[in-house]
Amino acid sequence: MAPYQIQPALWKQIAHYATFPQTGVSLRQMVMFGQNPSQGTLLRASQFLAEELPIRLAHRVKELDELPHNLNKMPSIEKVKRWYAESFEELVNFPKPELPPAIHDAFVKASGDASTLPEAFPNPSLPEHMKPKPTNGKVNVRQRMAHRYYADPDNTIKWPPEVHDYNERFTKVLSNIKRRHDPVVTTIAQGILEFKKESKSTQIDRSIQTFLDRFYMSRIGIRVLIGQHIALNRLEPHEDYVGIICTKTNVHQIAREAIENATYVCEEHYGLFKGPPVQLICPKDLDFMYVPSHLNHMMFEVLKNSLRAVVETHGVDCENYPPVKVIVAEGNEDITIKISDEGGGIPRSAIPLVWTFMYTTASPENLEQDFQGTDFKAPMAGFGYGLPIARLYAQYFGGNLKLISMEGYGTDVFLSLSRLSSSTEPLQ
């Protein structure tokens, strides 16, 4: 089968959509909107995504096409660009629903009567290079439009079969797009390796690091919106869940799971009978609104690094490893998780490198052989992606990940998670 080609007419359409600003949504807005969804609410969400996702995809296709230093010509980068363009085309060509006049009128009325969702505030966690560009005083019409899509129509309406059919078909398209984009992180990483090989460079410059930050942050946003929509349409209702968001995410339980997983990986990797112990100090009843899989992923990545540092500092033959400590504190604004190890620390000059993609001690030859796989967790051990991606997950909902190291002793990592859930998505 010949690879997908982006036709000139589609390029024109992509360029047009890329001129529109993206509309951010906060975690709290998603939860308020998704509680007890009717077919009408889900139709509203489908219409929002049918307009919003092509804009987000168009921004990324344009950015991939304009990458500097010939990075845009690398085979793996071209491949990802084609995936995004194909998904864009599927969404813009997806037929709009044919609604009876009474249903259409109900939507119009709901838009006028709708109670406004809580306001989303600018994300406080972003570094300068990821903050949205100023609009020069222009009013962003699409920001006002966002609320319209969250208007819940009258729940006494009897929804015709066409509405359910449209929701089902749209969800199927989103599932296919999500599957197509599964290997994006590893494929972009492969593209960077191709670039490093061709340019005979061991490092990648700041502009490419900035691009990776933006691109992966955008990917998290696209996958959250798609994952949330699929879950609202497909999963059975659960009292503590709204789509993929758990309104009572139990920190102790997630921490315990992450500790067990990271310990298992560490023991397997080094062939240890018993890895370094991990002490958890956390109230057992501490819960808040979050996406559990995000929290699990962030904690797993940090713990994996801490355990690795302890084993490599004290040796695989050590009989009495110093413990890794996980301390969870509950504040009014944030929940903060501190992960402390005695793994020898990091030299001060190397700390900025910890947050750069592709900074790793593994050799490129091993990475390329390891590459086959769709789930980025598997091959990422040697890609140097763990901490930078974990920090993006934290920043996505207004939190952050910071590191303080004491060379010669160990490292403290602070994971801050916003309890307010009111930060909008960081979009560019």
Strand order of the largest sheet: 3-5-6-8-7
Mean pLDDT: 85
Helix-strand pattern? HHHHHHHHHEEHEEHEEHHHEE
Uncertain runs with pLDDT below 50, 5 residues or more? 137-149, 361-380
Overall shape: it is: globular
The profile of the biggest β sheet is:
5 strands, mixed
Share in helix? 40-55%
What radius of gyration results from the CA coordinates? Answer: 23 Å
Kindly name the structural category.
alpha+beta
The counted number of beta strands is 8
Number of helices: 14
Question: Roughly how many Å apart are the termini?
Answer: 35 Å
Query: What is the percentage of strand-forming residues?
Result: 5-15%
How would you portray this structure in words?
- Helix 7 (161-180) packs antiparallel against helix 9 (206-234).
- Strand 7 and strand 8 (410-418) form a beta hairpin.
- The protein starts with 7 loop residues before the first helix and ends in a 10-residue tail after the last strand.
- The chain is built from 14 helices and eight strands.
- By secondary structure, the chain is α+β, with helices and mostly antiparallel strands.
- The relative contact order is 0.14.
Question: What is the secondary structure topology, with strand pairs?
Answer:
Layout: H1 8-17, H2 27-34, H3 39-65, H4 75-92, H5 101-113, H6 141-149, H7 161-180, H8 184-198, H9 206-234, E1 241-242, E2 245-250, H10 251-270, E3 278-281, E4 287-290, H11 292-314, E5 324-330, E6 334-341, H12 351-354, H13 364-370, H14 386-396, E7 400-406, E8 410-418
Parallel strand pairs: 3-5
Antiparallel strand pairs: 1-2, 2-4, 5-6, 6-8, 7-8
Helix pairs in contact: 1-3, 3-4, 3-7, 3-9, 4-8, 7-9, 9-14, 10-11, 11-14
